[in-house]
Amino acid sequence: MPQSGSQYDVVLIGGGIMSATLGTMLKELEPDWSIALYENLHQAGQESSDPWNNAGTGHAALCELNYSPAKADGSVDVTKAININEQFHVSLQYWSHLVNNGTLRNPSNFVNSLPHMSFVWGDDHAKYLQTRYEAMAPNPLFADMQHSEDQDQISEWAPLLVDGRAQGQRVAASRFASGTDVDFGALSRQMITKLADDGVDVNYGHKVTGLSRDTDGRWQLDVKDRIGGEKRSVKARFVFIGAGGGALELLQSSGIPEAKGFGGFPISGEFLRSTNQEVIDQHYAKVYGQAAVGAPPMSVPHLDTRFVDGRRSLMFGPFAGFSTNFLKTGSILDLPKSVRPHNLLPMLNVAKDNFDLVGYLVSEITKSQGKKIDALRNFYPDAADEGWELITAGQRVQVIKKDPAKGGILQFGTELVSGAEGSIAALLGASPGASTAAPIMVELLRRSFPTRFNDWETKLTEMIPSLGKRLNDHPDLLAEVTKETTKTLQLG
């Protein structure tokens, strides 16, 4: 246990997939650096990285329609889908490297092969999905994409979608057999356990309550032991704030100019989880639909197979809600305490421009269990009233940031904020988040350690063979790395 005055090269705040990834990369790049990790809870990966707390899709833009929006002329823009899929391949390569070097064991404990599907009904949505297919399929990244409007074919892929559905209803589905399900909680725990074995000072039940810059350029962190109540301070040359919804408050307390103008808008959620094993056994896919009008992208409905602790489950949702907590285990004061003079105007502008979102959240909050089952029946027409339990998902804090044109915008994505002097960085936001942890941390290394990054590139390329290249532009390299990750991660 560190004493007050302990000094480290790096301190990681938060025990989720982001800190786990950065710590693991740094330990391999600079094995002699001293590293400490502080996690508020008593185990790693229990907030945003937990599979019941939203994470778990393995976001690869294969099935999430909000990553391939329709344009005004009816065409579909697949730029974001390509970028996210490129990033997910980087994560797959990095995890494969960690399996090969012994950091990760038993890949099926954290990643499993699972088809990803998009499913819609009605003429307009079916036309959109066809256009999306035609825009995506020519790209090497999406060459294995399948598409059908035939109910019999769709039933072979996912029978719950078709059983009980009117024969005359137009439906459409796109499918990738090569999708995955990822338990980022289990992945985080494996990585951090290995970090502790390799000498990283891992502290659970410890909350970082504040940080400030000393005259010597190092950061001083105030740390509280949540069990014993003991307080101490530690110093670090570099600090990463990977505390999920808790990152904004700590970033603000740092006082760096790059933090100014950022705010957060929390959105909570619930899922229906099946308790009927017969139903669970009939569905083997992640099936995403179209978001409701006014719904945030994180609320895109999906009927979702997941593997948690080696057990297969089935969920539907999310049903969005609102809480002023920034963490599932946080405080109702998180939102009001985050308001500062520098972010007040962006937050007010976001409120003014997002009345449809507010209306959507109100409708979701007031939705009864029966209404939630009715929403489920859009995907699974034969769903029974019983056999579903309502579970609370995690908190997502969407980024609010300054915008020259609008004053402030609500950003549905992740934002890497780093100090100009390279001694501190934080990650804000939500999806695709966990799935793109590896490329985000590579970018953090590039920004925060510019004088060292060139020396690290050779080693980073061993970890991630496609580093610096776009696989969509190099189909031979895509085939090579896909073959390796499929074999190593046992996804065949």
TrEMBL record:
The protein's required cofactors:
FAD
Main EC class the enzyme belongs to: oxidoreductase
**Database matches in HAMAP family:** MQO
Recorded protein name is: Probable malate:quinone oxidoreductase
> Per its UniProt record, what PANTHER family does this chain match?
L-2-HYDROXYGLUTARATE DEHYDROGENASE, MITOCHONDRIAL
Give the E.C. number(s): 1.1.5.4
Q: Does the keyword Nucleotide-binding apply?
A: no
Q: According to its UniProt record, in which pathway does this protein act?
A: Carbohydrate metabolism; tricarboxylic acid cycle; oxaloacetate from (S)-malate (quinone route): step 1/1
Tell me the protein family, please. Belongs to the MQO family.
Q: Which reaction does it catalyse?
A: (S)-malate + a quinone = a quinol + oxaloacetate
* Keywords of this entry: FAD, Flavoprotein, Oxidoreductase, Tricarboxylic acid cycle
